[in-house]
Design brief:
The chain contains 13 helices and eight strands. It is mainly α. It has two domains: about 150 residues, Rossmann fold (3-Layer(aba) Sandwich), CATH 3.40.50; about 120 residues, Orthogonal Bundle (N-(1-d-carboxylethyl)-l-norvaline Dehydrogenase, domain 2).
Length: about 290
């Protein structure tokens, strides 16, 4: 996600430099975009008014923010587009506030396609003032940019989105496995039902992966697993366990154990297709 987002910032004339924990990735992107590679997060922060972060998990974000703090300064705004817990976002905001720097949590949704096309939906938590400062940057990366409330509200909204994605991808996979078992022409099913009441972004964009039984890394299983565990922890604070989240986490555990953790989450189709295969196995049929 970070690479396409940086490319759109460059197109908008907003990219001053890049940094990545993998130096080769930063050098490749900088060469492509005609920008510089920062020596460290701190040097990048010292040279910029706005820093955009996109990493994988709470620990990664905390590590990155800690690394840029020596370069933090009054007026600096940090925009975090990672998917992390709301508590992690608030902790980062507090660390930066001690240096006079602002922070907004701005997780994104829309897949790799949305990142490439600057069509992401971006949900933002932060002060109204920081949101206004962040808006030109966020609009260079997304189509829908909404402030939901104070710091942490962006991440709480993203958690809501991830719960929805869990249920949708599971049902789409079950439906496609059923269609295949019925002998239907899957491409025509996708084209037709993509215009129907049961359609969704995941059906239109990921059912073709299931039809082809190829699952290129889009939204990786291991990352959605991480996100759903954040959702589980947040729900637990309300004394609630969410059945759809628990069900999908169980299935992701099976997929990761089988070596599919870096495939797109549409690979859950493997498990749904297996249900029909097992039911029709001669060994399971009565004599």
């Amino acid at each position: 996600m970070g690479g396409p987002m940086a490319r759109n910032l460059a197109k908008a004339g907003l990219l001053q430099g890049v940094w990545n924990r993998t130096v080769a990735k930063a050098q490749s992107l900088a060469s492509e975009l005609g920008t510089s590679v920062a020596q460290s997060p701190a040097s990048l922060a010292a040279a910029c008014d706005v820093v955009v972060i996109c990493v994988s998990a709470d620990a990664d974000l905390l590590q990155t923010v800690d690394a840029l703090l020596p370069g933090a300064h009054p007026g600096l705004l940090v925009i975090d587009c990672s998917t992390v817990s709301a508590g992690c976002a608030r902790e980062c905001a507090q660390k930066l506030a001690l240096h006079g720097s602002g922070f907004v949590d701005a997780p994104v949704s829309g897949g790799v396609e949305g990142a490439k096309n600057a069509a992401l939906a971006i949900m933002v938590g932060g002060s109204a003032e920081d949101f206004e400062r962040a808006l030109p940057v966020l609009k260079a990366m997304g189509k829908t940019v909404t402030r939901l409330g104070p710091v942490g509200f962006g991440q709480a909204t993203k958690a809501t989105n991830q719960i929805m994605c869990a249920g949708i991808i599971q049902v789409v996979a079950e439906a496609m496995a059923f269609a295949k078992a019925e002998g239907l022409p899957l491409d025509q099913v996708i084209e037709t039902l993509g215009q129907g009441a049961g359609s969704s972004w995941y059906f239109v964009n990921r059912a073709p992966f299931m039809s082809r039984q190829a699952y290129p890394a889009g939204f990786r299983v291991r990352l959605h697993d991480k996100d759903l565990k954040i959702c589980r922890d947040m729900a637990a604070k309300h004394g609630v366990a969410l059945p759809s989240v628990e069900s999908v986490l169980t299935e992701y555990s099976q997929l990761m154990a089988a070596g599919h953790g870096d495939e797109d989450i549409s690979t859950i189709f493997r498990l749904k297709e297996a249900l029909f295969a097992q039911a029709n196995s001669p060994a399971l049929k009565a004599p």
